[in-house]
Design brief:
Elements lengths: L1 E10 L2 E6 L10 E2 L2 E3 L6 H13 L2 E14 L5 E13 L9 E5 L1 H4 L9 H8 L5
Parallel strand pairs: 1-6
Antiparallel strand pairs: 1-2, 1-4, 2-3, 2-7, 5-6
């Protein structure tokens, strides 16, 4: 099972959503920034590393707000850990995505998110999480 971390970055009541490029697996789908936990790496350390690599920020990783195990229909399973990020140092810079966008909770529902994120997106939009 692939172990992954993702950040729910909040600023002024908005969340940061990121769109994959055409060349990534599951192209043009929206997701929250993050990535794979390396062998021997702690989840919060992975979260800090991924945010520095993808967005150029040094994040203060907060509480783990959700953990989801998702089985994809064509095979492969993923364990996703979502962390709250309310503060960071540096300016967000799009280093790997097709697009990044600050959105309201309701606007999340209009984006074509990865299948594994859909339940969480609905809970965020309803105000049930963070």
């Amino acid at each position: 099972m692939k172990r992954v971390v993702a950040a729910l970055i909040l600023k002024d009541g908005l969340l940061l959503a990121c769109q994959r490029t055409r060349h990534q697996p599951m192209p043009l789908k929206w997701e929250f920034p993050g990535g794979k936990i390396e062998d021997g790496e702690q989840p919060r350390d992975a979260m800090r590393r991924e945010l520095e690599e993808e967005l150029g920020i040094v994040a203060e990783v907060g509480t783990e707000v959700a953990r989801i195990v998702h089985e994809y229909p064509r095979g492969g399973s993923v364990e996703l850990r979502f962390f709250e990020v309310r503060s960071y140092q540096g300016e967000i810079e799009n280093r790997i995505f097709r697009e990044i966008r600050w959105v309201t909770r309701r606007e999340l529902l209009g984006l074509d998110f990865l299948e594994a994120d859909l339940g969480l997106v609905k809970e965020l939009a309803a105000g049930k999480i963070i």
